[in-house]
Write a structure and sequence with these properties.
Layout (H helix, E strand, L loop, with lengths): L5 H18 L2 H27 L7 H16 L5 H23 L4 H21 L9 E2 L14 H23 L2 H11 L1 H6 L4 H27 L1 E2 L6 H14 L6 H16 L6 H15 L4 H8 L8
Antiparallel strand pairs: 1-2
Helix pairs in contact: 1-6, 2-6, 2-9, 2-10, 2-11, 3-4, 3-9, 4-9, 6-9, 7-9, 10-11, 11-12
Length: about 325
């Protein structure tokens, strides 16, 4: 019998992640923080893709909305994360509810095109706002504050991002185990059967859309606090493509796949950009190799080698 090594591997990985800010320099901590933030965003996108069963090219509107709302509230004098972050997440949820009520009336290619249109609308709107720096963007004067944690220290911010990411992973795992999660997955597998049972597939899809948007919005909040600089590119369709690449690299439908994919993407982006301005070509080659050689993504292949069911990892 093959021993299941997934949990020991996860514990070792988590212990290493928590130890990193104490053993790594500021560059490593900053890079790792970016990995975790984009991992959270990719995880939110994958929830909608893998469990609801629809592809969205518009989730960067929630990343950008979370980031910009955080910046604007902070610059307006609201510094406390305990006040700013709930307001921002509520705003993102309401935006997702409005967008989802419109877009989810369609499906397939039409849904993809509508979400892409949302992304482009926000991109050009932000680009036209000279008060926000237009295409050049603007700086955020400071990070949000927490009573017992100094977020001006990059190590503390990293640890907060790590804890929040683990919380999101745990929340998704819990939802998957509930009847609500089963109903959301049923929308993907057999919406007609769900309707025959007296349940509303549209309502469950909309709930999944809003939930995934809030996760991406939280990543936007953390992005602002990490970079302290925002540009309209954060809402661009090409960032949607990059986030999907992260999901594909790591493996869709798993809890850790999108996070691993984001880590690989950010690391390769950082290294290849120092070698060539055409670093996307290298990432494209890696994506082709992943599709050809690893049908299920890096994490799903690794999970099977560790002796477990990758669909629950």
């Amino acid at each position: 019998m093959t021993r299941d090594l997934r949990w020991p591997a996860f514990v070792l990985l988590a212990a290493t992640a928590f130890a990193l800010p104490f053993i790594g320099d500021s560059y490593i901590v900053q890079l790792a923080t970016r990995m975790l933030i984009f991992g959270m965003a990719a995880l939110g996108i994958d929830f909608f893709l893998a469990y609801v069963g629809q592809l969205s090219l518009g989730h960067t509107i929630f990343l950008a909305s979370g980031a910009y709302l955080t910046a604007l509230l902070t610059m307006a004098g609201l510094e406390s994360a305990l006040l700013v972050w709930p307001i921002v997440l509520l705003g993102v949820a309401l935006l997702a509810l409005a967008a989802g009520m419109l877009a989810l009336r369609t499906g397939g290619l039409y849904f993809i095109m509508i979400t892409l249109a949302f992304t482009q609308m926000l991109f050009f709107f932000l680009q036209s706002q000279r008060g926000l720096g237009g295409d050049e963007g603007f700086s955020v004067p400071q990070r949000n504050t927490l009573p017992l944690l100094d977020l001006s220290d990059p190590r503390n911010l990293y640890l907060l991002v790590l804890v929040l990411l683990l919380g999101v992973i745990g929340l998704i795992a819990w939802i998957r185990a509930t009847p609500f999660g089963a109903a959301i997955e049923a929308c993907r597998d057999n919406a007609q059967r769900l309707s025959a049972m007296g349940l509303d597939p549209y309502g469950y899809r909309l709930s999944g859309f809003v939930f995934s948007a809030v996760i991406v919005g939280l990543a936007g909040i953390l992005y602002t606090n990490n970079t302290l600089y925002l540009t309209p590119a954060l809402s661009g369709w090409y960032l949607s493509g990059e986030l999907l690449m992260m999901v594909i690299l790591g493996g869709s439908g798993s809890l850790l796949g999108p996070v691993l994919g984001a880590a690989l993407f950010v690391l390769l982006q950082e290294q290849l950009s120092h070698i060539t301005p055409h670093w996307m070509a290298g990432l494209g080659a890696l994506l082709v190799a992943r599709v050809m050689l690893m049908k299920d993504g890096f994490w799903n292949v690794l999970a099977r080698r560790l002796g477990g069911d990758d669909s629950h990892s």
